Amino acid sequence: MTRWVKVAATSDVPPESMKTFQVEGKDILLANLNGSFYAIGAICNHQEWDLSEGTLQGEEVVCAGHGAIWGLKTGQGKFGRPLPPEPVYKVDVKDGQVLVELE
Ligand code: FES
């Protein structure tokens, strides 16, 4: 069964920024792209760097560790070799709060 869980206030993640939040044992990267929020797994599937330490480039985040590039909408990684995708979470915004859908 899925349910919506509060992650942060919209003001916690200003436009063109991203931040990692711990929600029910999951590390979730929340990114604000021009007022729209996206959420993927926050721990890089290469060597476990926190993606919030990386750089936002449009709809992608470049990991500060070794440069893997992750799609904020797809969870797919670009690297020299295949990496498992990051989980992608559905996001909703209500009353100034950002919620993600969890299993
Ligand atoms: S830990 Fe992210 S690219 Fe290596």
Concise summary:
With 103 residues, the protein is mostly beta strands. The chain contains no helices and 11 strands. A 4-stranded antiparallel beta sheet has the order 2-3-4-9, with no helix packed on it. Strands 5-6-7-8 form a 4-stranded antiparallel beta sheet, with no helix packed on it. The chain has a 3-stranded antiparallel beta sheet with strand order 1-11-10, with no helix packed on it.
Could you explain how this protein is built, in words?
There is one protein chain. With about 100 residues, the protein is mainly beta. The chain has a single domain (about 5-100), classed as Rieske Iron-sulfur Protein (3-layer Sandwich), CATH 2.102.10. It is about 0% helix and about 50% strand. The protein contains no helices and eleven strands. The chain has strands at about 5-10, 15-25, 25-35, 35-40, 55, 60, 70, 75-80, 90, 90-95, 95-100. The strands form three sheets. It has a four-stranded antiparallel beta sheet, with no helix packed on it. Strand 6 and strand 7 form a beta hairpin. The mean pLDDT is about 95. FE2/S2 (inorganic) cluster binds near residues 49, 63, 65 and 67. FE2/S2 (inorganic) cluster (FES) binds next to loops.
Comma- or semicolon-separated keywords:
single chain, 103 residues, mainly beta, Rieske Iron-sulfur Protein, binds FE2/S2 (inorganic) cluster
The Rg value, from CA coordinates, equals 13 Å
Kindly, what is the distance between the CA atoms of the first and last residues, rounded to a whole number of angstroms?
A: 6 Å
Name the helix and strand elements from N-terminus to C-terminus, one letter apiece. Answer: EEEEEEEEEEE
Widest sheet, order of strands: 2-3-4-9
State the total count of DSSP E strands: 11
Mean pLDDT across residues: 97
> Structural class of the secondary elements?
mainly beta
The CATH homologous superfamily is called Rieske [2Fe-2S] iron-sulphur domain
Largest sheet: 4 strands, antiparallel
Percent of residues in helices: under 10%
Report the β-strand fraction as a percent range: over 45%
Bound molecules: FE2/S2 (inorganic) cluster
CATH architecture tag: 3-layer Sandwich
How many domains?
A: 1
CATH class division: Mainly Beta
What CATH calls the topology is: Rieske Iron-sulfur Protein
In the predicted model, the low-confidence regions spanning at least 5 consecutive residues are none
What's the shape?
globular
